[in-house]
Amino acid sequence: MEYNVQKDSKIAVLCGGMSSEREVSLRSGKNILNALHRLGYKNAQIVDVSENVAEDLKGYEFAYNTLHGKYGEDGCIQGLLEILKIPYTGCGVMSSSICMNKEYTKRILSTCKDIPLIKSVFVRKGEDVHKAVSGLKYPLITKPVSEGSSFGMTKVNKPDELDKAYEEARKFNDNVLIEEFIEGFFVTVGVLEKEGKAFATELLEIRTETEWYDFDAKYTKGLSHFIVPATGLSAEATEKVKKIAVKAHEIAGCSGVSRIDFMIKDDEPYFLEINTNPGMTDTSDLPAQSAVMGIDYDHLVDMILKSVGLNK
């Protein structure tokens, strides 16, 4: 079901929230609000999401969801908005919940043989982490299973570094995903929808001043260098990544917008994760990917706004 958002519609820009990605979300929300005002949506307002969000949303006709992380990107706020009958942007309850969990995302995508997944193990609370990774090759990456923005992630070069890295990940989630580290470079591709049809943006290649694409590299100007369109892989590999991204978006049930991350090694892509609510800050990937296609920030915001109702 599609909804016609009018210029005088009362739109809540949902941001902030209660996750570890709160500050990033606030930056995204501020940028989106300014864009909506420039586009003529004068009744758009920031709603900093708290436990009182149901009360705070009274009177709003639509929600522009720019929350990141727990409660905002995992199906929780989406379920509440469904109950309140407030149409919202982006992915729905099911796809948000699946994609927030890196392990369950991989399980869903493993049903498609065309999506290359990195060898990994899922370590539940109480399990022996050294025994669990015995079939993996170092270096490894330890990840909280349901966090974003690289919170709690550590590169593990040798076994005696594993316990500390594992405990760092468990500060965020009881369950931890541990993957073999791909010695390559990072690319990301946005997936947008127009008239209900998903399409991929140009690839964005990221070279960092840090050892890998960690939190500091993502949100500190000067520590990451964006190359867009990507130049580090062949034309054939570029098209392959785009096709995989759209396929992953569709298999996971995403709608409106997502961003799919990959590592590239020897011109071959390896799937990392799906972001169902990509950042929209000054240093975020999706706006840079879209701009090279002629979709400026305001146009991008408007496209995502028009995805209201596609998540039904």
Give a quick precis of the structure.
The protein is 31% helix and 24% strand.
Q: How many E-type strands?
A: 12
Provide the helix percentage.
Answer: 25-40%
**Spatial strand arrangement across the major sheet:** 10-9-8-11-12
On the 0 to 100 scale, the average pLDDT is 93
CATH topology label of the largest domain: D-amino Acid Aminotransferase, Chain A, domain 1
The geometry reads as globular
Describe the SSE topology:
Elements: E1 11-15, H1 22-38, E2 44-48, H2 53-56, E3 62-65, H3 76-84, H4 93-100, H5 102-109, E4 120-123, H6 129-132, E5 140-144, E6 154-156, H7 162-170, E7 176-180, E8 185-194, E9 197-208, H8 215-219, E10 224-227, H9 235-251, E11 257-265, E12 268-275, H10 285-291, H11 297-305
Parallel strand pairs: 1-2, 1-3
Antiparallel strand pairs: 4-7, 5-6, 5-7, 8-9, 8-11, 9-10, 11-12
Helix pairs in contact: 1-11
Write up this protein.
The chain is α+β, with helices and mostly antiparallel strands. It folds into three domains: 11-90, Rossmann fold (3-Layer(aba) Sandwich); 99-115 and 183-305, 2-Layer Sandwich (D-amino Acid Aminotransferase, Chain A, domain 1); 120-180, Dna Ligase, domain 1 (2-Layer Sandwich). It is 31% helix and 24% strand. The chain contains eleven helices and twelve strands. The chain has a five-stranded antiparallel sheet. Strands 4-7-5-6 form a four-stranded antiparallel sheet. A three-stranded parallel sheet has the order 2-1-3, covered by helices on one side. Helix 1 packs across helix 11. The longest helix is centred in the N-terminal third of the chain and has 17 residues, at 22-38. It is globular and about 60 Å long.
